[in-house]
Amino acid sequence: VLQFLKGGSAKLFFEFAPRMRLRYPRGHLWSRGKFASSVGFVQLDKVTEYVRNQSEHHETTFLG
Questions:
Q1: Domain count, the chain
Q2: pTM to 2 decimals?
Q3: Distance CA 2, CA 64 (A)
Q4: Which of 26, 27, 31, 45 qualifies as a FRET site for 6, CA 20 to 30 Å off?
Q5: Is there a domain that residue 64 lies in?
């Protein structure tokens, strides 16, 4: 299910922003990993930390 969502959203992203193919020439918009949890089991600070550390994890930055 997650792979379907990631693949579908990447396809739409590149349709609406074709110039981004220069940044992602192989079409790999998302990382291979996955993170999922229900709202009740993860504190907001942990989610914030996870999101903020994405650039370190993937060793690239997109917006910053």
A1: 1
A2: 0.45
A3: 26
A4: 45
A5: no
